[in-house]
Write a structure and sequence with these properties.
mainly alpha, ABC transporter involved in vitamin B12 uptake, BtuC, single chain
Length: 338
């Protein structure tokens, strides 16, 4: 996690442009893929006819396009949050899912659904955000407090413990909900992007934009924190303030993603590590690279989830777990080897 390459503005822009082009290509491929296949020329024709009311335009622009934007925004949010958690914990195994933050956020969202918080503006997302912040505090307390947390794997173990508690609480909530809601909530818990709507996408994208700007302004501090708290403090970083800002922003990203898309595991672990191996550990480059590649990865995973058993579809969380669990084992063995 400490390998740095020389980072310049031109390099950041060049890598970001490359990943953005790959993201656009993946989005176009996803737009044409589904139970009803649409060729590239047909997509161009539909774009020329937009906003026509034909059946094909309805499929492309009312069903697939919102879902692609939604998947991209959620993937970018989880990946950026993963970058922050891995930097603060100095551990590539950390991510919102493994640390239990996704579970705490999901519990808050489910409690909001059961209590009818959806009738209020931002009721469910607010409870999801509260659950994420409560989880951060609980994990720190279980791990023994901030002193020493960043020097070993105690926080990961604490995350497993807290996540187990929230899983039990979620099962309790599921046991008391109406049977009509049980299947939809269970499907949502595994990661569901089928309910994509432009207002939801706008909220998540706005949170992503604000949090990304805040976190990118802290990129140099993240670089120093990776070297150790003592080093960062000697170089003038206010450790406590920086951690509060970064943890709050990362928790906001996780909460918004989970409250609308459910629990999608391992994206926040895989993407930052892959980008770090490819482009280096400097967060001035790592943050935009992770955001763009995370969006691309979740769009690809969601496309596979909705086509592999078409016309039925899998929760996207199943696809990411099938990819992420072996990758998690690979990382553990790689760290153990060192």
């Amino acid at each position: 996690m400490k390998s740095y390459h020389r980072v310049t503005l031109s390099r950041v822009l060049g890598v970001s442009a490359l990943l953005f082009l790959l993201l656009v290509a993946a989005s176009l491929a996803a737009l044409g893929t589904g139970a009803v296949h649409t060729g590239f020329m047909e997509i161009l024709q539909a774009l020329r006819d937009f906003p026509g009311g034909g059946a094909q335009n309805q499929i492309l622009f009312s069903v697939r396009l919102p879902r692609i934007f939604f998947a991209g925004t959620v993937g970018a949010s989880l990946s950026v949050a993963g970058v922050v958690f891995q930097a603060l914990l100095r551990n590539p195994l950390a991510d919102p899912y493994v640390l239990g933050i996704s579970g705490g956020s999901a519990l808050g969202a489910i409690a909001g659904i059961i209590l009818g918080a959806g009738a209020f503006f931002a009721g469910v997302p607010f409870l999801a955000f509260s659950g994420a912040l409560v989880t951060v505090v609980l994990v720190f307390v279980v791990a023994g407090g901030p002193r020493g947390v960043f020097m070993d794997n105690s926080l990961l173990l604490a995350g497993v413990v807290v996540n187990s508690f929230f899983s039990a609480a979620i099962l309790f909530c599921l046991s008391v909900v109406d049977s009509m809601e049980l299947r939809s909530i269970s499907f949502w818990l595994m990661g569901d992007l089928s309910g994509a709507a432009w207002p939801d996408i706008g909220v998540v994208f706005l949170c992503l934009l604000v949090a990304f700007v805040v976190l990118y302004s802290q990129a140099r501090k993240l670089n120093l924190l990776v070297q150790g708290q003592e080093t960062a403090s000697q170089l003038g970083v206010n450790i406590k303030s920086a951690k509060y800002i970064m943890l709050t922003a990362a928790s906001l990203l996780t909460a918004m993603a989970v409250s609308l898309a459910g629990i999608i595991g391992f994206v926040g672990m895989m993407v930052p590590h892959m980008m770090r191996l490819m482009w280096g550990a400097d967060h001035r480059l790592l943050l935009p690279a992770a955001a763009l590649f995370g969006a691309l990865l979740l769009i690809a995973a969601d496309t596979l989830a909705r086509t592999i058993l078409a016309p039925a579809e899998l929760p996207v969380g199943v696809i990411t777990a099938l990819c992420g669990a072996p990758y998690f084992i690979f990382l553990m063995r790689r760290r153990g080897g060192r």
